[in-house]
């Protein structure tokens, strides 16, 4: 499983690089989808197929569809590509890259000093184990996340309702 | 013959099984195009294609020749890479989802713990085919079709997942073989009737079949997202739709009708018979139902089907806890 892990990790890194450097927004989003699929593969390789499948369903299959959908509706054209290209000049990315390099160095040194001899085992976690862990020791976290989502749901429903009020009164049958 | 160790033999058998299933599914998808037209003709009091070969049985060959030799044209205003990619996703994602379906106790490609989730993942990926196909065509009708398809698929995917959770809870597993085994005494269509109804609706909607074919409504959108496609690329979208039909039928059989289980006949015959019956149901739906208005389709999904699946899930959970309070 180690080869699968490193290969999909490499794909994820390369795809993410293309997300940043691509000038066409739709193409950039597609690379992001590839990157998410690669991360799902990393989960599979690590022996967490449940997390991997959810990554594909939730991130690649639902959230990214909405992103692509919105960007598609914006009808971005050549002007946007030119703007993107302008943003890709070294003036723009040198600063963030320098800062990110420092972070990368910190990460590498910690990994270097720490216990990196852990080998990827590839034993699989079943959905049942994930479920009992979530609703056992992590129950509070699950409930808090549920509250957060509920708040978002109520907000979205409120915003949607006020904006569609005038048209609803005319065909108010349902 | 020293290389012919038991492991190698096992791998070869598994590979040939997978290949056979792949070819049969693709052929079935192609044959369904003709079967559907004949059945539609039968139900609408007309002949349907009956000129090529005895009883029109060679119509498929004629269609194949036509579609293979047609000029494969890519519009100059299209986004070439995505335009080519979209039909590949359309067909490949649905074919891949066939991996998890166990045909008989011995036949089937993959036997995974996450079985059912893999189908949801592939159905999620399949959305991109329509989305990218419609956008990359650079055509307003195609874009409108893609928009409709995406909105429809997203809203129906939400409760498609929920509608099957009752089955998963009853079987105690995502594994398709264990789900079939759990139906030994009682098919899940009886305890999970609400789940079956909603999954059937969601399955039809996800394959963009009639009456949920707003994305390709001929009258309004002149064919929707694949309007710019021709030749084999159109063929892949087309066959992909029929493969989706076969896939959803096979899934419903596995999840609600006990898969290969049944008396007297061999397992595969049972599986094939049940799947064929559901395929005919798909065609019958198209022959008999009018196409509802687009906004009605959306509000039906959110206001009726989603609450129904939630109620079903709640009831199923309550019953399971009542029957076995220990949570086993």
From TrEMBL, chain A:
Location(s), subcellular: Cell membrane
Record EC number: 7.1.1.-
Transmembrane segments: 6-21, 28-50, 56-76, 97-114, 134-156
Entry keywords, A to Z: Cell membrane, Membrane, NAD, Quinone, Translocase, Transmembrane, Transmembrane helix
InterPro entries, sorted: NADH_UbQ/plastoQ_OxRdtase_su6, Nuo/plastoQ_OxRdtase_6_NuoJ
Pfam families: Oxidored_q3
Domain of life, source organism: Bacteria
One Gene Ontology MF term: quinone binding
Coiled coil regions, renumbered to chain: none
Topological type in the membrane: Multi-pass membrane protein
Catalytic reaction annotation: a quinone + NADH + 5 H(+)(in) = a quinol + NAD(+) + 4 H(+)(out)
One term under GO cellular component: plasma membrane
Cited PANTHER family: NADH-UBIQUINONE OXIDOREDUCTASE CHAIN 6
Role of this protein: NDH-1 shuttles electrons from NADH, via FMN and iron-sulfur (Fe-S) centers, to quinones in the respiratory chain. Couples the redox reaction to proton translocation (for every two electrons transferred, four hydrogen ions are translocated across the cytoplasmic membrane), and thus conserves the redox energy in a proton gradient.
Family, similarity comment: Belongs to the complex I subunit 6 family.
Subunit structure: Composed of 13 different subunits. Subunits NuoA, H, J, K, L, M, N constitute the membrane sector of the complex.
Protein name in UniProt: NADH-quinone oxidoreductase subunit J
Organism: Litchfieldella anticariensis (strain DSM 16096 / CECT 5854 / CIP 108499 / LMG 22089 / FP35)
TrEMBL record, chain B:
Major subcellular location class: membrane
Topology with respect to the bilayer: Multi-pass membrane protein
Role: NDH-1 shuttles electrons from NADH, via FMN and iron-sulfur (Fe-S) centers, to quinones in the respiratory chain. The immediate electron acceptor for the enzyme in this species is believed to be ubiquinone. Couples the redox reaction to proton translocation (for every two electrons transferred, four hydrogen ions are translocated across the cytoplasmic membrane), and thus conserves the redox energy in a proton gradient. This subunit may bind ubiquinone.
Family that this chain belongs to: Belongs to the complex I subunit 1 family.
Catalytic activity: a quinone + NADH + 5 H(+)(in) = a quinol + NAD(+) + 4 H(+)(out)
Biological processes per GO annotation: aerobic respiration
Pfam families associated with the record: NADHdh
Keywords: Cell membrane, Membrane, NAD, Oxidoreductase, Quinone, Translocase, Transmembrane, Transmembrane helix, Ubiquinone
Alphabetical list of InterPro entries matching this protein: NADH_UbQ_OxRdtase_su1/FPO, NADH_UbQ_OxRdtase_su1_CS
Quaternary structure, from the entry: NDH-1 is composed of 14 different subunits. Subunits NuoA, H, J, K, L, M, N constitute the membrane sector of the complex.
Cellular component terms per the entry's GO annotation: plasma membrane
Gene name per UniProt: nuoH
NCBIfam families linked to this entry: PRK06076.1-1, PRK06076.1-2
HAMAP family, per the entry: NDH1_NuoH
EC number(s) recorded for this UniProt protein: 7.1.1.-
Stated name of the protein: NADH-quinone oxidoreductase subunit H
GO MF, any single term: NADH dehydrogenase activity
Transmembrane segments: 12-32, 81-101, 113-133, 154-174, 186-206, 242-262, 268-288, 300-323
Compartments where found: Cell membrane; Membrane
């Amino acid at each position: 499983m180690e080869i699968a892990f490193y290969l999909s990790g490499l794909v994820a890194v390369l795809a993410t690089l293309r997300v940043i450097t691509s000038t066409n927004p739709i193409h950039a989003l597609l690379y992001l989808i590839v990157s998410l699929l690669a991360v799902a593969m990393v989960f599979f390789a690590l022996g967490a197929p449940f997390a991997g499948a959810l990554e594909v369903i939730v991130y690649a299959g639902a959230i990214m569809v909405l992103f692509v959908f919105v960007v598609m509706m914006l009808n971005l054209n050549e002007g946007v590509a030119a703007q993107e290209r302008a943003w890709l000049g070294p003036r723009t990315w040198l600063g963030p890259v320098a800062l990110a390099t420092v972070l990368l160095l910190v990460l590498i040194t910690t990994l270097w000093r720490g216990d990196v001899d852990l080998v990827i085992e590839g034993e699989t976690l079943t959905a049942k184990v994930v479920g009992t862990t979530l609703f056992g020791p992590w129950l509070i976290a699950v409930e808090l996340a549920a509250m957060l989502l509920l708040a978002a749901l109520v907000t979205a429903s409120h915003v949607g309702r006020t904006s569609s009020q005038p048209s609803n009164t005319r065909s108010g049958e349902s | 013959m020293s290389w012919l160790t038991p492991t190698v033999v096992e791998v070869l058998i598994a590979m040939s099984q997978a290949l056979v299933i792949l070819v049969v599914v693709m052929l079935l998808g192609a044959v369904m195009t003709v079967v559907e037209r004949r059945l539609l003709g039968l139900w609408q009091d007309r002949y349907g294609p009956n000129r090529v070969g005895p009883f029109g049985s060679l119509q498929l060959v004629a269609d194949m020749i036509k579609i293979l030799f047609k000029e494969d044209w890519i519009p100059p205003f299209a986004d070439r890479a995505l335009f080519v990619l979209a039909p590949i996703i359309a067909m490949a994602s649905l074919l891949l989802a066939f991996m998890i379906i166990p045909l008989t106790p011995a036949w089937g490609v993959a036997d995974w713990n996450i079985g059912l989730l893999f189908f949801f993942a592939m159905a999620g990926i399949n959305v991109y085919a329509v989305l990218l196909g419609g956008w990359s065509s650079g055509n307003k009708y195609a874009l409108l079709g893609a928009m409709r398809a995406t909105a429809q698929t997203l809203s129906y995917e939400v409760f498609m997942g929920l509608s099957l959770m009752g089955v998963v809870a009853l079987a105690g597993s995502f594994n398709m073989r264990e789900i079939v085994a759990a139906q030994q005494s009682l098919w899940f269509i009886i305890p999970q009737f609400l789940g079956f109804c909603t999954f059937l609706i969601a399955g039809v909607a996800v394959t963009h079949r009639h009456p949920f074919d707003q994305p390709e409504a001929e009258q309004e959108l002149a064919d929707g997202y694949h309007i710019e496609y021709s030749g084999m690329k159109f063929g892949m979208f087309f066959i992909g739709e029929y493969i989706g039909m076969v896939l959803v039928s096979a899934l419903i059989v596995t999840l609600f009708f006990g898969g290969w289980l049944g008396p007297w006949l061999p397992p595969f015959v049972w599986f094939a018979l049940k799947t064929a019956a559901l395929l005919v149901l798909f065609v019958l739906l198209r022959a008999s139902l009018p196409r509802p208005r687009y906004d009605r389709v959306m509000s039906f999904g959110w206001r009726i089907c989603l609450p129904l699946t939630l109620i079903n899930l709640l009831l199923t959970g309550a019953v399971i806890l009542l029957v076995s309070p220990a949570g086993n």
